[in-house]
Amino acid sequence: MRIGELAERSGVSRDTIRFYERNGLIRSIAGTSDTNNYRDYPEDNLTALDFFSKARTAGISIADLRDIMQAIAGSCDRADAITVIRAKISELQERATQVQNVIKFLEQSIDGD
Amino acid sequence: MRIGELAERSGVSRDTIRFYERNGLIRSIAGTSDTNNYRDYPEDNLTALDFFSKARTAGISIADLRDIMQAIAGSCDRADAITVIRAKISELQERATQVQNVIKFLEQSIDGD
DNA sequence: CCAAACCAGTGACAATGGTCCATTGTTTCG
DNA sequence: CGAAACAATGGACCATTGTCACTGGTTTGG
């Protein structure tokens, strides 16, 4: 599909999609037309963009997402990919604990009310 | 204490402490000397900075931290403060769920290995 | 056919969260 | 005393994460 449709269906703006592409988060392929150079964005970018949106609000950086996507897609070495992803999972679990700690702190600060 | 000691003991750099102060996260008081204008940083800034460090790695913004600190310290209206903090707690719980979702996604991506 | 909508590419701009540097003045310690 | 360490202030600079605007070309619906 073309970028407009992808933007529409994913809820991610054209500019942001292009930004993500520049940063290696997604890939598009050259269109087949000989009159334009509109690029084609495969369907699976919808899944990816949806994941990115969730991950970004969860505070995961573009760089991390790039690592993850490369690990998943770049099947050059499956074992390496899994190692990368497991590491990210650990980081995220650590992050989750940190968030819980902050919640606890805040709860204590209003304790008794 | 002076800023150097605070930096040393909190593990937060001078520059960052000053940055936080400029942004209303902490407060210092004018020193008593008549020859210098070194500021005095009360002991409780240690607790605050420790909290900030954790909160920042948990992905909480400076603006949020300022809101929280103002709510806790500015006792102008206790009920308002509690409302603010409860709202932040909700946001954080939402964030925690998001992080869990991303973890799930990642786990599925390496499922079976 | 033609205007409106779309596309690519570029570069400027903005907010956030720091970090670094230079200058000037103060304190501290050997 | 004098050098080294420390403090205050101010501004420059950096990466990250987008967003906006402009140009020039393409497609599409009425």
From TrEMBL, chains A, B:
The keyword DNA-binding applies. It holds the Pfam family MerR_1. Residues 1-71 form the HTH merR-type domain. Keywords: DNA-binding. InterPro entries: DNA-bd_dom_put_sf (IPR009061), MerR-type_HTH_dom (IPR000551), MerR_fam (IPR047057). GO terms for molecular function: DNA binding; DNA-binding transcription factor activity. It comes from the Bacteria. This is DNA-binding transcriptional regulator, MerR family. The lineage of its organism: Bacteria, Pseudomonadati, Pseudomonadota, Alphaproteobacteria, Rhodobacterales.
